[in-house]
Design goal:
The chain has helices at 2-5, 20-30, 58-71, 84-103, 119-130, 134-138, 175-180, 220-233; strands spanning 11-16, 38-43, 111-116, 151-153, 171-173, 201-203, 207-208. By secondary structure, it is an alpha/beta fold. It starts with a helix and ends in a 5-residue tail after the last helix.
């Protein structure tokens, strides 16, 4: 919002849970920006909160929550509802589609993606993104209501080929968001880059250069520059 007031040229695209409180939150955020800055919104059923059962009564839910503590909070499935593991599966599908859209160049440069979701779904999104173990997930607690959790772009260094980076490894949790997630540590939210110095991708699908000396007489510097240009055209993801 501060960038919008300064006239920064960037766009927003929203993914939101279909639940009423999420849609109302989306509308509040959207209305804070100029209409030309909002590219669009897409409802995603996969971003809904954990299902606790079709018809709920207070006494029954208290018994089930006590049973969940004995069984294990992540794997306990509520009657007619979901377990944390079930939410993990649908968030995995959502992330796969999201990464596909980023890599396909669906979003223009300077586009920020805003996900409007719920506490447990948010934590499982981070769990899946950063590959947390179940034990790590169990030690992280929801942020306060309406506190934004932000993943920031990590720019490759000089000479790094962006084709050697998985899209997820190009983002890290910022410091304010880390502080808002009780139990989360910096090593849990720092990307691990699958990059081998000296290896440069020649063309997608053609293979990598050899360690230290190029491949078949190709100029590694030229190949890196070409990779950067293709990466920028795709909107910065791969």
């Amino acid at each position: 919002m501060e960038a919008a007031k300064r006239g920064t040229n960037y766009k927003l695209y929203f993914y939101t849970s279909p639940y009423k409180r999420s849609l109302q939150t989306y509308e509040g955020i959207r209305d804070a920006f100029a209409s030309q800055q909002v590219l669009g919104m897409q409802e995603e059923v996969q971003l809904r909160e954990q299902d606790f059962g079709n018809f709920q009564d207070a006494a029954g839910k208290e018994r089930e929550k006590a049973e969940r503590l004995r069984f294990g909070r992540f794997f306990y499935r509520f009657p007619n509802g979901e377990s944390g593991a079930d939410v993990y599966d649908r968030i995995t599908v959502f992330q796969d589609h999201l990464i596909r859209d980023i890599n396909a160049g669906r979003f223009a440069n300077n586009t920020s993606l805003v996900l409007v979701t719920h506490g447990l779904a948010l934590r499982i999104f981070l769990m899946r993104w950063f590959h947390w173990s179940v034990d790590q997930f169990m030690h992280v607690y929801n942020p306060a209501n309406a506190v934004p959790i932000i993943l920031e772009r990590v720019e490759p260094g000089p000479g790094d080929s962006p084709f050697c980076w998985h899209t997820k490894s190009m983002y890290k949790l910022n410091a304010e968001s880390l502080a808002a997630l009780k139990g989360c540590t910096s090593d849990m939210c720092t990307p691990v880059v699958s990059y081998i110095p000296g290896e440069v991708l020649l063309n997608p699908g053609e293979g990598f250069g050899s360690q230290g000396g190029g491949y078949g007489g190709f100029d590694e510097t030229a190949q890196v520059e070409s990779a950067w240009e293709q990466w920028a055209e795709l909107g910065g993801g791969w």
